[in-house]
Specification:
Blueprint: E1 2-6, H1 13-24, E2 27-30, H2 31-44, H3 52-59, E3 64-67, E4 70-73, E5 76-78, H4 85-94, H5 98-112, E6 117-121, H6 124-128, E7 134-139, H7 142-152, H8 159-175, E8 188-191, H9 197-212
Parallel strand pairs: 1-6, 1-7, 2-6, 7-8
Antiparallel strand pairs: 3-4, 4-5
Helix pairs in contact: 1-9, 2-4, 7-8
The protein binds 2'-deoxycytidine-5'-monophosphate.
2'-deoxycytidine-5'-monophosphate binds next to helix 2 and helix 4.
């Protein structure tokens, strides 16, 4: 079974996908971590993240896999590196490369082969797994996402600044030339603005249970 979840930053996709993975016995795939790992690597190599042909050339040499807390890049386990500020600042550029996206999508499909997975990101339902058994679009208002992130940061950054940063990420996510965030016509749309994480998990688990009683299509898309 394949479960695909897309949505903008700050909707709780990762938390929901990890909890659902545990409850439903699925393998958890965080696609954003692949872009973050490649970004970390190119910065380490002194490559300009805006030089997309250099970025793609470097990315394609990498061996990428997952471990329980992040990504294994050429045998090195990455976890906190994926969250470094320099990675945050450069990952949008790296993930705008069509060649990098093609490479990452190939890794995601390879790792998913012969596994039951739950994959989350921006283009899981539309590009990477368009035939997923369950497709979810997890949304929330800008205001509620900003407030949640503000609380997560322990109010160390002004709310207005947090809201501004999320709005900028939304703009990049929804307007980039390839792999932009959009609602798949057959995705289940969940607005989590007024829902708890547990309530969202219940809805996703219910969708999985319904899909399990139907025959699977099993196919994956290509890009
Ligand atoms: O979900 P995240 O913040 O960890 O994602 C990191 C970056 O990668 C962010 O700029 C969005 C981008 N991304 C993407 O373009 N496609 C995906 N499937 C997942 C993430």
């Amino acid at each position: 079974m394949t479960v695909a979840i897309d949505g903008p930053a700050g909707t709780g996709k990762s938390t929901v996908a990890q909890r659902v993975a545990r409850s439903a016995g699925l393998f958890y795939l965080n696609s954003g971590n692949f872009y973050r790992a490649i970004t970390w690597y190119v910065l380490q190599q002194g490559i300009d993240s805006e030089d997309l042909s250099a970025v793609a050339g470097a990315a394609k040499t990498l061996s990428l896999d997952v471990w329980s807390h992040g990504i294994v890049l050429d045998g090195q386990k990455l976890r906190r590196q994926l969250r470094e500020e320099s990675v945050d600042a450069n990952v949008a550029s790296v993930s705008s490369s069509a060649e990098v996206r093609h490479f990452v999508n190939h890794q995601l499909r390879r790792i998913s082969r012969n596994r039951d997975v739950i994959a989350e990101g921006r283009d899981m339902t539309t590009v990477v797994f368009p035939d997923a058994d369950v497709k979810i679009y997890l949304d929330a208002s800008l205001e509620s996402r900003a407030r949640r992130r503000y609380d997560d940061l322990g109010h160390s950054v002004p709310l207005e600044e947090v809201r501004q940063r999320i709005a900028e990420r939304d703009e990049i996510d929804t307007t980039k030339a390839v792999g932009r965030l959009k609602l798949h016509p057959s995705a289940l749309y969940i607005d989590s603005s007024h829902l708890t994480i547990n309530q969202v998990c219940e809805i996703v688990l219910h969708a999985i249970l319904s899909a399990r009683t139907k025959p699977s299509t099993g196919a994956s898309g290509q890009s």
